[in-house]
Write a structure and sequence with these properties.
heterohexamer, A alpha/beta (98), B alpha/beta (123), C alpha/beta (119), B: alpha/beta, five-stranded parallel sheet, 4 helices, 5 strands, C: alpha/beta
Chain lengths: 98, 123, 119, 119, 98, 123
């Protein structure tokens, strides 16, 4: 399934709980969640570890809006809204970790 | 209305009660869902486990106490309530602190259940 | 594919409704059908006809209404959440309708996917 | 003492406005003056006359209006935030007035304390 | 000064940042912030440490609403809304860690 | 209007931009505050430091880019901008990433400054 996280990893616990709960599948970071995919963020260790079990995506327009598109962690796949739609249709269910 | 289809709906509750209205309005969705003869389960994770903490007394903050509604869920045949074990432990709570019968599962177990759902709704 | 959307937050304060709109538009561009958008919690505030954002800003309410009209999307505002927050027929924007929570469950049953946007 | 209050969230969704109300009432009971309550961000949604909460629930908007009338509190709604969110004279509840952000700064200058409630 | 925290310590970082920033004064826990003052919560260590530098209060009506009034950490002072008002007037300024 | 009084106002910004409107609406307050001839300072802590990260390009999310407004603050004689050192470090950012000149302070230093204020506003 597709897990969607829209919260900054340093502000709230959504990413932590998502990663501890998810049984594989894919993770899409949107809105303030995209900060988790940026180099130097103290949450990158968790994200790198997660990459062993699930594919990680981040929404490019949200990265660009925040001036962070040029510091994306290796291994994170950037998508636009069309790619977001594809991720939703390719997975049988999705869970937004609000 | 339901076209005879039965889908598996899971409602994931991760927010504390009273500080925000999500707990109460999530419960309102679940009660309506019961009328649709779908397969309904509720997962309480993180601060969401506080929603079931026994003994709400809301007089002092002058809001309605919606906790009795959780006890009514069983009358609507909603009885698959899963509570996250790690969340209870981090909050000093146990199964005995819950106001209704629940099944305590680890995060990983809840994650596995989530994979079997058709629809996951999060509040 | 038939996609339904749930929006839990109001306009401008949270990015949720913007993300949902851009997602819905992209889904339509890809040939999918967005069958219903259900507005719940503070999401009901997306349906007031009285918003007047700064002229250089997007008009969240009107663009939902326009997208819905162009692509036959059912914009449903939860009646219980709306009454609590002061959304009624008298301030409801054209293109939206007020109905019960059953419409959310029905959307979940009938659509192939349900995607939630919120806080 | 003269106390001013800033409220950043709307009714029912967040506890902020409830906490602010109970705080204001307690301040008045202790003989303090609540000079102004300023509604900003989603806080402007506390001023719509259209809310209809369930009968067994508190009426957030009306009880602010009543407290203000009984104790001469100036309830000010930020005009810029209100326009964005669809609060205008036509749906403004009695007892509230719409004005500029300067009223918040002024409240801070003139009051002995400014207390913020939000998310 | 008076520091006011209204967020659960396990959901957001407000309490952490407040405690790392505050230079003495008093801490008042309200709304979901009151969970930080309850026994068995994994944040109590931080709160106990903070008690060395600042006086800690929690709003009793918020504890009662959450069914947590009978498990308050030793050393936390319970106040009602009148006590909240007193704390505001006794301190020259207050900061709400939203 | 200001009765000749000068008070020290500190605006504390702890929230990321775009995900919520607080950054933008906080900026609107600060600009108004400038007209009142008060002593104004801004503190950026936690995710609030992201508000000043250079290079916002908001075309893709179709919202107005309000970052240029930070550069206008100096024209209003608002130039006491403090950024939390620990917040920068936890986010892989440095002073050079900020879109305007700022002073980098530790949390404890910001806490000391806070103690000298008459009004602290938090968004």
């Amino acid at each position: 399934m597709l897990h969607i996280v829209n919260k900054s990893p340093l502000d709230r616990n959504a990413l932590d709980t998502c990663l501890a709960t998810a049984q594989g599948g894919a993770l899409l970071l949107i809105e303030d969640g995209v900060y988790a995919a940026t180099t130097g963020n103290s949450a990158v260790g968790k994200l790198k570890q997660a990459m062993g079990q699930m594919k990680v995506y981040a929404l490019k327009p949200d990265l660009e809006a925040r001036g962070m598109a040029d510091r994306v962690l290796d291994g994170v796949n950037l998508v636009d809204y069309g790619g977001f739609v594809d991720l939703v249709t390719e997975h049988a269910t999705c869970q937004s970790w609000l | 209305m339901s076209e005879g289809q039965v889908k598996k709906f899971m409602y994931v509750n991760r927010k504390a009660p009273h500080g925000t209205i999500y707990a109460l309005e999530s419960l309102e969705v679940v009660l309506i869902a019961a009328a649709f003869d779908q397969d309904v389960s509720l997962a309480f994770m993180d601060d969401g486990v506080y929603q079931l903490k026994k003994g709400f007394n809301t007089k002092g903050i002058e809001v309605k106490n919606f906790q009795p509604t959780y006890r009514a869920l069983d009358d609507y045949d909603i009885n698959k309530l899963y509570v996250e074990q790690e969340a209870l432990e981090a909050r000093g709570l146990t199964q005995e602190d819950m106001c209704v019968p629940v099944e305590v599962l680890t995060r990983a177990e809840i994650g596995k259940l989530m994979e079997t759902q058709d629809i996951v709704l999060s509040f | 594919m038939k996609i339904a959307i749930l929006i839990n937050e109001g306009p401008y304060t949270h990015e949720a409704t913007d993300s949902a709109y851009l997602f819905a538009r992209a889904a339509i561009e890809k040939g999918h059908q967005v069958s219903r958008v259900f507005f719940y919690h503070d999401g009901v505030n997306n349906s007031t006809r009285l918003t007047e954002p700064p002229q250089d800003d997007r008009h969240v309410v009107n663009r939902w209404a326009k997208l819905a009209q162009d692509h036959n999307i059912d914009l449903v505002v939860c009646v219980a959440a709306a009454l609590r927050r002061g959304i009624k027929d008298e301030n409801l924007a054209p293109g939206f309708r007020i109905s019960g929570l059953g419409q959310l469950i029905e959307a979940g049953i009938q659509a192939d996917r349900l995607v939630t946007f919120g806080d």
